[in-house]
Amino acid sequence: MPARASVKQRTRRKSGGLKKFEKDRRKAIRSGKDRVKIGLPASAADYPDGTSVIMVGVVHEFGSEDGTIPERSWLRSAMRENKEKHRKFIKRLAKRVSAGSLAVDKALDLLGTRVVNDVKNQIVAVIDPPNTPETIRRKGGKTNPLINTGHLRLQVTHQVVGKGK
Questions:
Q1: What angle do CA 77, 74, 21 make, to 5 degrees?
Q2: Potential cystine with 160: which of 99, 108, 110, 138 (Cβ 3.0-4.6 Å)?
């Protein structure tokens, strides 16, 4: 079982929030370079009641606009906390690509699989800020702020994109 994580709550102004995320996303798309995207794809299956899993993911990642749901970063925090581990893995993959024993798209696929696993572990590990007593009651006693049915976690995936993708 992964270690429990406490995620600092940050205001939208400090983290850059959704606007910074969208700016970075557009910049990456314009670059045209091979890359791996991690998160919730547009094709992610919604919840059985029709609720958008992408909307739920965004609200948890950045907090709700009205402030009733606090920020509980599961994607950015996973990237921050595993940054050095990912860098080391990228270096090992780059050596194999340079040696000709691994194709770039396969290396990106391996990286994506590794990062998705770290993101899914982070979803399980987030405990702060905790759910309200009412939310815990509604969830049948479950206290993990990001786990109720496990649907969000199941929808996290990766996709290799770029020039030839």
A1: 75
A2: 108
